[in-house]
Specification:
With 291 residues, the protein is mainly α. The chain contains eleven helices and two strands; from the N terminus they run ααααββααααααα. It has a two-stranded antiparallel ribbon with strand order 1-2. Strand 1 and strand 2 (141-144) form a beta hairpin. It starts with a helix and ends in an 8-residue tail after the last helix.
């Protein structure tokens, strides 16, 4: 293989990995902070994708302008879902284990509810639109402009979340809650504010990922579930609760999948991902990047 071909292959993996990381960061935020294993997380990625597609095809609005809109709309939806569902579960569950089990069941219900609502509203056909499809040449390699934009924005949002959690007072409160709920509450950190806010930000990131995906790929009502499973694999790679680990794990998984599909068979993608998942669980259960 030439240098240009290697560059295209690695870049393809990084583009996919950037989306993986963005979805995993939102899910990791919800589970690491509140112990909500939101199996429906990928379905809200689909909502962001369909929202962008609908506005672009109906009104001609640039998908780039829909990135902040998707973030805000899905964040507001996340706040509403937390208030309607998970806030009450937390208040009525006698302990954390029961809350996790009940939250998982609620998330399953949300997954099927959103899937069926999207199918009812827009049908099950593949949808898509053309946006920045012209090729960009760089160092002997050729890339689609929309996919490069997807990678840059995914890394930008992922980096912004990590900086928020590491450098701000809000982020310190979130990290304290991840380490010890009781200890954080004893020093005055308000879980009633942080829990819904972080749940909303998690869904907002999923909406951004869906918006970015719609710029370069076709979308369908079944697109969300595989991204939820992949996000769980990425979180396992990076370590539960580790945001920088989720970013590194997403990019790593994307590159490994791209190389594996190129040198073996594209149909082995799922086998490769699940093989990595099982191996990390057995050999490094705390994740590859845990400290």
């Amino acid at each position: 293989m030439s240098l240009g071909a290697w560059t295209e292959l690695i870049a393809s993996g990084l583009i996919t990995g950037g989306i993986y990381a963005l979805v995993a960061l939102g899910l990791n935020l919800q589970y690491g902070l509140m112990r909500i294993l939101n199996i429906a997380h990928g379905e809200f990625l689909m909502v962001g994708a369909y929202l962008t597609w609908m506005v672009q095809t109906s009104f001609g609005v640039s998908p780039l302008l829909m990135v902040p809109v998707s973030l805000l709309v899905l964040m507001a939806l996340g706040l509403a879902i937390h208030w309607l569902c998970f806030r009450r579960l937390a208040a009525t569950s006698p302990n954390l284990d029961i809350f996790e089990a009940r939250g998982l069941m609620v998330a399953f219900g949300l997954m099927f509810l959103v899937q069926n609502l999207i199918s009812w509203a827009w049908g099950g056909e593949l949808r898509g639109y053309d946006y920045l499809t012209q090729p960009v040449h760089f160092g002997g390699a050729q890339f689609a402009a929309n996919k490069l934009l997807v990678l840059v924005l995914a890394l930008l949002f992922a980096g912004a979340l990590i900086v928020l959690l590491r450098q701000t007072l809000l982020g310190k409160g979130v990290r304290a809650l991840m380490q010890s709920q009781t200890g954080a509450q004893l020093v005055g950190i308000n879980t009633r504010v942080l829990h819904p806010l972080m749940f909303g930000i998690g869904l907002g990131l999923s909406g951004v990922a869906g918006c970015l995906l719609s710029m370069a790929y076709t979308i369908s009502p079944a697109m969300g579930e595989p991204y939820t499973v992949t996000a769980l694999i990425v979180i396992t790679l990076g370590g539960f609760g580790s945001m920088s680990g989720a970013l590194a794990g997403g990019l790593l998984l994307g590159v490994v999948e791209a190389l594996g599909m190129h040198f073996t068979n594209p149909s082995l993608k799922a086998l490769l991902s699940y093989g990595i998942f099982i191996a990390v669980l057995l050999l490094r259960p705390r994740g590859l990047f845990s400290k």
